[in-house]
Amino acid sequence: MSSRFCIQVLAVAAQALSAAPVEDLGTNLAEFQLANGMRFAVFERRDAPLTAFHVIVKTGIADEPEGKGGVARLFPRMFAQGGETVGSRNPAAEKAALDRASQAYDRWKLLANKRPPADSVDVSQAKVAFQISGEEAAHHGHPNFFRDVFGDAAAIGLDTRVDADWSSYSVALQSHQSELWFKAFSDWLRKPSTRRFHAERDALAEEASKAAAGSLQSRMEMALTAAAFGARGYGRLAAPAAEFGELAASDFEAFARAWYTPGNTVAAIVGDISSAEAKRLAETYFGRIPAGSGSQRPAAATMPKLMSQTAEAVSPDTPLSAVAWLRPPRTDPDDPVFDVIWGLLAAGRKALLPLWLQKDKIAANTSVMPNFPGDRGWSLFTAAAVPRMAVAPETLEKSLSGALAALAAQPVTDDDLSRVKSILRARLLSEMESTPGLASLLARYLANEGSAGAAAAAIAKIEKVTAADVRRVAGRYFTAEHRVALRPRVGGL
What we know:
Layout: H1 3-15, E1 29-33, E2 39-44, E3 50-57, H2 71-78, H3 91-112, H4 120-140, H5 145-152, E4 156-162, E5 167-174, H6 178-190, H7 197-212, H8 216-229, H9 241-244, H10 249-259, E6 265-271, H11 275-285, E7 310-315, E8 321-327, H12 335-346, H13 352-359, E9 363-372, E10 379-387, H14 393-409, H15 414-433, H16 435-449, H17 458-463, H18 467-477, E11 483-490
Parallel strand pairs: 2-6, 7-11
Antiparallel strand pairs: 1-2, 3-5, 3-6, 4-5, 8-10, 8-11, 9-10
């Protein structure tokens, strides 16, 4: 069977709707934990020869140390290089060569940035020495090993990403190739390789520089997090791009030892595999990874104090007003209420926020982010809008604040509440219906709440939200003292 045909078959299977009602989570779902602390959830689904894997390492941008901006963001990029053993022709020789390449790179950059300038001949020789050492390291290893090996296996949906809280790695494979994932990912988790470290780091630094001067949305996000949280935690989203280019391979390795440990890692497996087989493979491959003494993010404390109640984002063309309020972590009992509030304001053609603002001809378009930038700590419930021509940003800001305050002043109608619950229920069920979607959902619940089975109660929690709950939560959280407002400044960069 050709790789192209395999990919087509698996893509259809991945999107196919499956008979996986919520109640099946109570019978077909198994969870277990290895002795080293790594947790697994396995949902057996035999309707297609496909198995989807979704791993979450419980660390993200918020855990980047000051001065080491970008280090957490490097891991999804570096995943393609594979682990220190799998993908290496000679692991010991390759590691030694990579260390020499890193030292040569540091010497070259030191000379290149020296003031007063170093002799140009010395700089050129240092650069050549780095290039030679890099070629030597490449001789011992296989650059982009995982990209190639998963491509040869006709994998679909290979995706790696990082956000404020989580680092996620997902892929779907033909079921008879499931062991490939266990072997490859366990080797990478044990010790990620630093193949092509400098090339990936420099590419990341360039992307970060462009993002800092990029879309209005990204500027808004960085301005709000910096104003609300300062330079720590979620404020690391706005870490200076200059830090990225200063990262060393040793910084990458130190972050891996601190955070990429079995106790910080969960995996959800959905598809044509039994829980017994998944457990056997997990113990064979992941069970031999030492537990380590990884870092743990402290539990979310009480509501933090805003660093500033105003933020500014430069816009060269279109102004954007936004107002954000502190909201509790996703584990808070009121989390379903915030989901319903988001639905009331932003979901469907009868969403209240655009109806209110467009009716008064104040805003051209609107958006709402219910928990930005993360799930695990106190984050921001954000409402944003682009003002219509001749509408002052202050006017729009006042209208946005008033719209949220209105939820506390008067009850929402039964029709609106029923409409939103239907939308939220449909969104959750839609995610459960695809094999990769269910793997992602179960991994998130396993990481955030400690049990993948908690996903089964999600719909019931939403159904229990009342109009009184909406008023209570809006009145408690959408207040002036807990608000940060974005003040757009139109002009040059």
